[in-house]
Design a protein that fits this description.
With about 160 residues, this protein is α+β, with helices and mostly antiparallel strands. The protein is about 25% helix and about 45% strand. It has one domain: Nuclear Transport Factor 2, Chain: A, CATH 3.10.450.
């Protein structure tokens, strides 16, 4: 596998994908979120310690767009949690192209949350380690691995990171 730099045009398209990802979640448009992924995909949220030690235990694991849609349905219909707004801050997007046309992308993230009864706080911070592909004419996530830095996990982690 050899990786090579991406063109400025492709980098701009990737930035649009990541901006759309953050905006979709920040605006509460959860039903749009699964559409940012390929049909067969992987979304996982894993602590940095597990990732670095090669341990497979993930806090959240979805292995298809259908599973992402089920997660959205559960959030909308069955989960009880204090209302909040979230803000995704993304930085240091780095991308390289693989021989098979997929893109390996890494970015830092921080997610802030504001509940109606509390000050704004950091919900999670870490990095995205993603594989992005062109699917039906647009870029989508085939894999999104969210590696969060903290060993502690808030009991309110119900919302996609």
């Amino acid at each position: 596998m050899s990786l090579r730099p991406v063109t400025p045009e492709l980098r701009a398209e990737l930035q649009d994908l990541y901006d759309d990802y953050a905006e979709t979640l920040d605006d509460g448009e959860l039903e749009r979120w699964p559409g940012l992924f390929t049909e067969k995909c992987r979304y996982e949220v894993v602590p940095r310690e597990n990732f670095e030690r090669g341990l497979p235990l993930a806090l959240i694991l979805c292995e298809s767009r259908g599973m992402l849609e089920d997660r959205v349905a559960a959030l909308r219909r069955t989960s009880m949690y204090v209302p909040r707004s979230v803000r995704h801050l993304l930085s240091h997007l780095r991308a390289s192209a693989d021989d098979d046309g997929s893109l390996r992308v890494r970015a830092n993230y921080a997610v802030l949350q504001t509940r109606v009864d509390a000050l704004t706080e950091i919900l999670s911070a870490g990095r995205y380690l993603d594989v992005v592909v062109r699917d039906e004419g647009r870029l989508r996530f085939r894999e999104k691995r969210v590696v969060f830095d903290s060993v502690l996990v808030p009991n309110s982690l119900v919302y996609p990171l």
